[in-house]
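Sequence, please.
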């Protein structure tokens, strides 16, 4: 990158969970200030928003101006010319809802890939395991314009090998021939599985239970995300989800993660102690919905996410539509540095949005 992005380069190059609070505030704060100036100079709509707010360059992480994540459904926000767009990502949404549109250039796409690799391998190791994709192949057919699901699957496929899809295109039923062959070939060995939460529960784990099938994959890792609202409606807890995943498939390590297409690459992974972790190049701030001031540990508020990754669009500081609470900083028993938090659910009256909530619409 150019010399005015030195702090961004430095924080992206650091190991994902090695920066303590002091060093992270210094590096990430400087990187976010660089990005704020960069987007103000290259995205007219963003510059107009800052001007209307009378905002100057930020001096710390909590001072970075934030955009409501919903704004990406209403405006085409990008800091690159049209001919530099390498890939366009779209969020999932309810029927008739306009999705978010996120425009990536090659530099941002590469930064996202490297960041996701650093986080994922920190949790599953660097050895590529046989991979079970708990979805159907149709979701990744168009490789130039992805849904959040498709982007998530393709991103995670890099960390596995001998991939198979566990579900059929037509009816989301179990692809039993492929699963049986995979299970016979890799029985008794640790594998890597990935899928979106509600789909993993409804179309894989519950289907295995109904069919009386138990897979023998001891020591395996399952990473999943999205769709918790539907599980809450069915009274399925995180603990129950993990218990069934262990019983039916031998998934000893089950890691949920919090993330969104508007900041792909900046995923907040759940460790074995049940905490969601902010990596060094990203952070989470919990804000009071009455005065938007940052809140301390244990205080419920609205989740803001910041990231040093977005260079092609002004998505480096976003106010989400989710509620959360900070659970610690640099003190998790797993040994990873950084803030940890829990997601408590959607803001009341906020429209549904999620990677796995509209699987039927995204199947084509």
């Amino acid at each position: 990158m150019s010399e005015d992005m030195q702090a961004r380069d430095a924080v992206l190059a650091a190991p994902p969970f090695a920066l303590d609070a002091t060093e992270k505030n210094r590096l990430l704060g400087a990187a976010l200030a660089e990005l704020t100036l960069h987007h103000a100079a290259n995205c007219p709509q963003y510059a107009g928003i800052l001007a209307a707010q009378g905002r100057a360059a930020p001096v710390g992480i909590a001072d970075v101006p934030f955009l409501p994540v919903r704004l990406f459904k209403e405006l085409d926000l990008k800091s690159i010319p049209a001919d530099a767009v390498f890939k366009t990502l779209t969020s999932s949404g309810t029927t008739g809802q306009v999705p978010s549109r996120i425009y990536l250039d090659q530099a941002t796409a590469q930064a996202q890939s490297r960041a996701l690799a650093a986080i994922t391998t920190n949790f599953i190791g660097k050895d590529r395991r046989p991979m079970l994709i708990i979805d159907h192949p149709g979701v990744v057919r168009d490789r130039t314009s992805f849904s959040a699901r498709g982007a998530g699957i393709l991103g995670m496929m890099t960390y596995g090998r001998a991939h198979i899809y566990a579900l059929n295109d037509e009816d989301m039923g179990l692809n039993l021939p492929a699963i049986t062959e995979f299970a016979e070939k890799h029985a008794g060995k640790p594998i890597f599985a990935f899928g979106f939460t509600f789909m993993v529960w409804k179309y894989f784990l519950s289907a295995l239970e109904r069919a009386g099938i138990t897979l023998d994959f001891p020591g395996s890792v399952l990473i999943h995300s999205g769709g918790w609202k539907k599980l809450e409606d069915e009274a399925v807890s995180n603990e129950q989800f993990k218990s069934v995943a262990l019983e039916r498939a031998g998934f000893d390590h089950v890691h949920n993660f919090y993330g969104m297409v508007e900041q792909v690459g900046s995923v907040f992974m759940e460790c074995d102690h049940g905490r969601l972790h902010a990596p060094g190049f990203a952070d989470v701030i919990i804000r009071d919905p009455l005065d938007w001031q940052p809140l301390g540990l244990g205080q419920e508020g609205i989740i803001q996410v910041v990231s040093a990754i977005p260079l092609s669009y002004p998505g480096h500081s976003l106010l989400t539509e989710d509620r959360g609470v900070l659970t610690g900083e640099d003190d998790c028993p797993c040994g990873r540095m950084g803030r940890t938090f829990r997601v408590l659910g959607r803001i009341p009256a906020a429209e549904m949005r999620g990677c796995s909530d509209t699987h039927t619409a995204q199947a084509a």
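The CA atoms of residues 227 and 307 lie 23 Å apart.
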